[in-house]
Amino acid sequence: MEELQHYEDAPAPPVWPIFGDLMAGLVGVFVLILIWVVGYQVELTRSLEQETERRQVEEQRRGALEEALAGPLASGRISLSHGRIGISGSVLFALNSDQLQPEGRELLSTLVEPLQVYLGERDELLMVSGFTDSLPIQKGNLHFSDNWELSAQRALTVTRALIEEGMPAALLFASAFGEQQPVAANDNEAGRAQNRRVEIAPVPRNTASN
């Protein structure tokens, strides 16, 4: 009985060491969280700086292209949007045709010199892309089986015309999109006329090779 009383009267272990260990653990967790937050902020800042630099470079490219094409742009015969030179299909070709019209060839000849100057200052190529509206090829047209083929042949025609007007062949390549990637609705003639187009876009050389 006396022994039991002895244990009951024994002092409780001090709580300060336990409290100290708990606080040390909490401080450690806080430090880890703080390090993660600081690292995340540094990475976010770096990403924002890279994005700002990329946008500045893109803006400089767009400004340089606008300056190079100031004459054709002022005439209203071409458009420039997001670095892509747009030419209405009606200026270049008759409906369902890949034969370049005289007005179209004359326009292309005015683009060669400014584009050569632009490309000469950069390691870039010209991508010539053909697009059509969504209407199927008219029956009786034996030249093209579908819009893909028509857009491909038109892109090739423009590419060859640019080369004939003096653009080095090593600086161009052609691509076809058919009725894909319209810029307007295809449910009316005005929209379809906008979708029948050829675009010429400077692209980085490594983009074309991938």
Automatic annotation (TrEMBL):
Domain of life: Bacteria
Region spans: Disordered: 186-210
Organism: Sediminihaliea albiluteola
GO CC, any one term: membrane
Protein name (record): OmpA family protein
Domain OmpA-like: 80-206
Gene3D superfamilies associated with the record: OmpA-like domain
InterPro entries xref list: Bact_OuterMem_StrucFunc, OmpA-like, OmpA-like_sf
Keywords: Membrane, Transmembrane, Transmembrane helix
UniProt-listed Pfam families: OmpA
Transmembrane segments: 15-38
